[in-house]
Every structure is written in structure tokens, then in C-alpha cells.
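Q: I'm building a small set of examples for a reading group on sequence design. Run inverse folding on the following structure and report the sequence directly after it, with nothing in between.
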């Protein structure tokens, strides 16, 4: 059981007013809020040991290096990676995906096939299209049904010995669908393809075990799990990370540089060119510690309660249509009011202090599938309450009245 009022006291932003109303923050799928223990870690870094890492003999540099590498181990433990050097710090999910896509340029040939899903965020579509343009590989798509679930029979038929890579998100940001990644990974491996799972939306709700999943790559962003923006991670199996060439050249990622030839550093540094987001990496570790202290089982069961309550309450509003009604989903609700543009509803909700996201959620193919410009998306976190959902429901009713 969660003590939600105690948890809410950890988040200073939750007590602010927006447009003279108490903030109701339901845009968690875009970015989660930051608790005081994580803010304290950020302040402590810049107040007490801000220094560049890995290359200094002085005390501050050693302290910063130690904390950064401890954060890497925290992330390793959280995801149950076999080695700390299988965790690469990146600037976020988008960077992680581009790193892998760039690496595969060297490994793919014309007519090899890459499979993505109809439920992807643009950051899990565009880098693969760019990869196909560079290599002549062909992009195939696992289609979805009206409920917002991937159609696994078609996936089975898309797989062949031409398939080299499969990329699917664990949870859809636009609809909240939890995809059957265990099945997807197993089937891909049976034809010898590698699998990258985009965990940007799953990590706030689920603790993934990359070894149990036997996944080749898993990517995530800190800002979705109570950490800061501009930092994230790539997990890659050691054998894959050794095979992929470096993404960016620069300091930190080399073993030796001469004008004739450069040799690269070992993992993980081979993929970490330049001064990283040191404070961000340390705060990422602190954010995972914070969430683990609350417990992911507790988080998931409370958020499921919020999802059920919100679905029930919103469905009493006539003319409200849900998008994404999958059997397995997380606390994301996408909906529209008949005949009303989602942006107009979002604007009225903002006047009432309610933060929701409106638009295509960087998933235009999903909106095209439903023939709509976008949706209103309310996404709940473990610090939200049923009382806040009541405020949302009243707000949606008010918006409907004003805009009809
Ligand atoms: N994939 C999914 C499923 C997402 O929800 C997001 C963020 N909305 C991303 C990728 C991109 O994450 P970031 O912007 O942190 O790189």
C-alpha cells in the first residue's frame, strides 16, 4: 500500500498553483515530476563536487567519477544487466536508438529486413527509416487492431531469415498498450534477428529484467522515472556492443590517438564521447533508488487502480470516445470528445490547472490509423490521486459544455 500523501510531500511542484488552481499533473507519460531527494542530489553535485570525470587526479574529479560509476551500477542492478559496462549513458531514449541504428549501418546489407510496430513513437520509426535509406534494408510494420494491440499473427508471418532487427516499444506512449515483448523477442531470436525494446514508457511502471527477457538492447530516459531531462541509458548485450562501431568520435571514447590511426576505448566508454551529463547520470541513479524504495509492485497496483477509476468515471461522459482499450495497458488514457478538437479541450483544462497532453503524441501513424488529428491524453503516476481524477472529469464535462 502506498502512502500517497506522504509521497506527494516529496514533490514540491505538486503544491503549486496553475492559473490560480491547484496543479493537477496528468502529463506523466511526457515527463514525470522530480522528488526532493533527487533535487537534493542535483543541488549537492553543483554545490559540492562539480568536476569533469575520468580524467582528473584531483579529489573533486575522483568524487564525481565515483558517484557517476556508482549510478551506472545502480542502473545495472535495476535492469539486472550482467555487466556494468553493458549500460551506456546517453542523452535519452532518442539518442540510444540513434546510437544503435547508426551502428547497424555497418552490419546490414541491401534487402535485409527490419521490423517495427504500428504503435511506435517517431523516435522508434525515423532512425530506422534513415538506416534503411543508408543501407537499402527494407522496413516492415507489425499492424495494430482497433483496440490498439499488435497483431501477432501478422508478426509471425513477417519474420523470415531476411529479418535482421526487430524494434518495438514495451508500452505505447499514445495508448498505454503493454506489448507482448517476451513473445516478440523469442520469435525474433528464432530467425536470428536482434531485438531492441524501447522502454521509455515501461520504466515508470515496470522493472524490466533484461537477462530474463534475453533482450539484445533496451533503452530508457531518466525524465520518465523521476529523474532529470537530457540523460538516459542504452542497455546492450556485451557481444552486440562489442560488434557495433562507435557512434560519435571525441574525447573519452579512445584508447590511443595518432594522426595515422585511433583505437577505441573499451566498453562502456567507446560509446560515451565527450563530457557526459555527469550530474544527470548521478541523479538518474538517485531517481531509480527513489522509485525502488517505493517499490514497482506497489506503483503498478496503485496506478492500475487509478486507471480503472478514471476509465469508469470518464466513460459516464456522453460523446467521449477512448482510443486504445487493450487488455494489457498502463495508466494512460487517450480520448476525444465527439466533434471537438483535442487542442481546445486541453486549453480549457489548462485554465483549470489540469495538465494533459493533446496532439499526436509523436505517434502520427496511430492517429492516421484512427483517422483523427490527435487525442487528449491523461497519464497517471503513483503520486496522483482519485480526487485529481474527479477534477479532470469535471473539467472535461465543463469543456464539453463550453465547446459543444
Ligand atoms: N519512445 C517512447 C515510447 C516515448 O514515449 C518517448 C518520449 N515521449 C521516446 C521514445 C523519446 O524519449 P526522449 O524524448 O526522452 O528521447
Amino acid at each position: 500500500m502506498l502512502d500517497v500523501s506522504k509521497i506527494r510531500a516529496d514533490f514540491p511542484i505538486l503544491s503549486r498553483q496553475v492559473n490560480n488552481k491547484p496543479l493537477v499533473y496528468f502529463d506523466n507519460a511526457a515527463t514525470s515530476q522530480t522528488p526532493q531527494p533527487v533535487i537534493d542530489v542535483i543541488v549537492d553535485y553543483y554545490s559540492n563536487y562539480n568536476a569533469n570525470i575520468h580524467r582528473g587526479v584531483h579529489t573533486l574529479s575522483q568524487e564525481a567519477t565515483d558517484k557517476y560509476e556508482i549510478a551506472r551500477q545502480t542502473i545495472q542492478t535495476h535492469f539486472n544487466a550482467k555487466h556494468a559496462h553493458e549500460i551506456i549513458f546517453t542523452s535519452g531514449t532518442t539518442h540510444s536508438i540513434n546510437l544503435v541504428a547508426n551502428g547497424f549501418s555497418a552490419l546490414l546489407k541491401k534487402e535485409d529486413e527490419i521490423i517495427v510496430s504500428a504503435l511506435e513513437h517517431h523516435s522508434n520509426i525515423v532512425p530506422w527509416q534513415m538506416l534503411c535509406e543508408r543501407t537499402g534494408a527494407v522496413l516492415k510494420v507489425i499492424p495494430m487492431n482497433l483496440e490498439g494491440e499488435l497483431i501477432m499473427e501478422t508478426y509471425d508471418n513477417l519474420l523470415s531469415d531476411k529479418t535482421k532487427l526487430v524494434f518495438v516499444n514495451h508500452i505505447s506512449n499514445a495508448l498505454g498498450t503493454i506489448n507482448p515483448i517476451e513473445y516478440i523477442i523469442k520469435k525474433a531470436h528464432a530467425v536470428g534477428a536482434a531485438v531492441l525494446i524501447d522502454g521509455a514508457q515501461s520504466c515508470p511502471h515496470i522493472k524490466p529484467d533484461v537477462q530474463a527477457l534475453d533482450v539484445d538492447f533496451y533503452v530508457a530516459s531518466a525524465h520518465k522515472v523521476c529523474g532529470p531531462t537530457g540523460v538516459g541509458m542504452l542497455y546492450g548485450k556485451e557481444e552486440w556492443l562489442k560488434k557495433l562501431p562507435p557512434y560519435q568520435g571525441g574525447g573519452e571514447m579512445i584508447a590511443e590517438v595518432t594522426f595515422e590511426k585511433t583505437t577505441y576505448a573499451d566498453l562502456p566508454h567507446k560509446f560515451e564521447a565527450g563530457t557526459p551529463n555527469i550530474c544527470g547520470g548521478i541523479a538518474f541513479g538517485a531517481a531509480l533508488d527513489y522509485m525502488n524504495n517505493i517499490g514497482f509492485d506497489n506503483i503498478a497496483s496503485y496506478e492500475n487502480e487509478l486507471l480503472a477509476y478514471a476509465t469508469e468515471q470518464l466513460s459516464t461522459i456522453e460523446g467521449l470516445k477512448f482510443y486504445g482499450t487493450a487488455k494489457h495497458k498502463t495508466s494512460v488514457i487517450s480520448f476525444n470528445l465527439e466533434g471537438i478538437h483535442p487542442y481546445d479541450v486541453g486549453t480549457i483544462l489548462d485554465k483549470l490547472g489540469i495538465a494533459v497532453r493533446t496532439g499526436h503524441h509523436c505517434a502520427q501513424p496511430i492517429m492516421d490509423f484512427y483517422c483523427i488529428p490527435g487525442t487528449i491524453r491523461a497519464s497517471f503516476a503513483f503520486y496522483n490521486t482519485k480526487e485529481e481524477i474527479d477534477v479532470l472529469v469535471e473539467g472535461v464535462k465543463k469543456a464539453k459544455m463550453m465547446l459543444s
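Residues 8 and 258 are 54 Å apart (CA to CA).
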